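Request: When convenient, would you put together a sequence paired with its structure tokens?
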Amino acid sequence: MNKIKQQLYSSCEQYVEQRMQRILTAMEDLENDLENETKSSAGDKYETGREMINLEWNKLSNQLQQFKMLKETLKSAKRRNASDEIQLGSLIKTNMANYFITIPAGQIQVEGETYFSIGAGSPIAQLLLNKRAGEDFSFNGKTNHIISVE
């Protein structure tokens, strides 16, 4: 695996870990809030507060599961063998932009170049999958030329 791809994987892994850590911290804060919630004479207020904490907990728990799935997708992409055909884990350079098909981690700067880390289900990835260097594709009414695939 080339140096740029390694740096992109590293950036994606950091992205996922940071998001997961934020969620875990928020969940710990909710646990503390739940423990500190005291039953007052206004029972309805107590129950409403607990229910709001539980709803937020469930939301964070779902987000955590989504990031765990992204982490697994990233591992799967990393294990794939390089191919001339665009697939999960491919690094693609086009005349318009550079793409890294792994997880939707956004824009990443590596060695002065911008790469867009996108999920395989994204519209642009769907257009790129199974294509090879030298082929063209249209996105947003513009023709793009695939320069290289790694």
User: Anything to note?
Assistant: The mean pLDDT is 91. The chain is about 50% helix and 20% strand.
